[in-house]
Amino acid sequence: MTEPVTPGSRLPHGNSTTGSSDAVPVVNIANVLTVLRIALVPVFLVVLFADDGHDTRWRIGATLVFAVAAITDRIDGQLARKYGLVTDFGKMADPIADKALIGAALIGLSILGDLPWWITVVIAIREVGITLVRFAVIRHGVIPAGRGGKVKTLVQSFAIGMYLAPLPDEVRFASVTLMGLAVFLTVYTGLDYVVQAIRLRRGVTSS
């Protein structure tokens, strides 16, 4: 599990693990990519629902838009690590961009009948719940995104990509299996965050 960070500690932008937000301009390539990811969400939805949502060409287009948006998450994190492009805006906008993209894709697939609603609901409850937990303990300290959370997001992205792509029925079992793993990691990492929050609160109370 990731150790809690003290209130004075600075968290990096996106997936980065080092750097400081001091004297870093808000308008930098990492933040631009984050904003681009947010801007691609409505574009993705328009393409996904075009022509009843099941036309092969449009589904390929939706898969490509989703893939481009997901890749920017990796790129902006790498740029932030390499060049120290850390800003308060980036620390706030990056997780919002991730949740907006994943949430839009899951809800869209469920509306189209391609993904069971219970999967979308479980993942949505986890994401909203953890966000509320973070705010609940923020006065005691910040719970950073751990390795498990990053793996969870990566698996979710691949699983969603497979559901979006017009794959033949013969390989659909792979999509179902990967989505099952994504749901497991979603619940597991969610419980991990709750445990960290409890430990953080108890540690502050007992000190």
Automatic annotation (TrEMBL):
<comment type="pathway">
    <text>Lipid metabolism; phospholipid metabolism.</text>
</comment>
<dbReference type="InterPro" id="IPR004570">
    <property type="entry name" value="Phosphatidylglycerol_P_synth"/>
</dbReference>
<keyword id="KW-1133">Transmembrane helix</keyword>
<keyword id="KW-0444">Lipid biosynthesis</keyword>
<dbReference type="GO" id="GO:0008444">
    <property type="term" value="F:CDP-diacylglycerol-glycerol-3-phosphate 3-phosphatidyltransferase activity"/>
</dbReference>
<feature type="transmembrane region" description="Helical">
    <location>
        <begin position="100"/>
        <end position="125"/>
    </location>
</feature>
<dbReference type="GO" id="GO:0016020">
    <property type="term" value="C:membrane"/>
</dbReference>
<keyword id="KW-0594">Phospholipid biosynthesis</keyword>
<protein>
    <recommendedName>
        <fullName>CDP-diacylglycerol--glycerol-3-phosphate 3-phosphatidyltransferase</fullName>
        <ecNumber>2.7.8.5</ecNumber>
    </recommendedName>
</protein>
<dbReference type="InterPro" id="IPR000462">
    <property type="entry name" value="CDP-OH_P_trans"/>
</dbReference>
<dbReference type="InterPro" id="IPR050324">
    <property type="entry name" value="CDP-alcohol_PTase-I"/>
</dbReference>
<keyword id="KW-1208">Phospholipid metabolism</keyword>
<feature type="transmembrane region" description="Helical">
    <location>
        <begin position="29"/>
        <end position="50"/>
    </location>
</feature>
<keyword id="KW-0808">Transferase</keyword>
<keyword id="KW-0812">Transmembrane</keyword>
<dbReference type="InterPro" id="IPR043130">
    <property type="entry name" value="CDP-OH_PTrfase_TM_dom"/>
</dbReference>
<feature type="transmembrane region" description="Helical">
    <location>
        <begin position="173"/>
        <end position="195"/>
    </location>
</feature>
<dbReference type="GO" id="GO:0046474">
    <property type="term" value="P:glycerophospholipid biosynthetic process"/>
</dbReference>
<dbReference type="InterPro" id="IPR048254">
    <property type="entry name" value="CDP_ALCOHOL_P_TRANSF_CS"/>
</dbReference>
<keyword id="KW-0443">Lipid metabolism</keyword>
<keyword id="KW-0472">Membrane</keyword>
<dbReference type="Pfam" id="PF01066">
    <property type="entry name" value="CDP-OH_P_transf"/>
</dbReference>
<comment type="similarity">
    <text>Belongs to the CDP-alcohol phosphatidyltransferase class-I family.</text>
</comment>
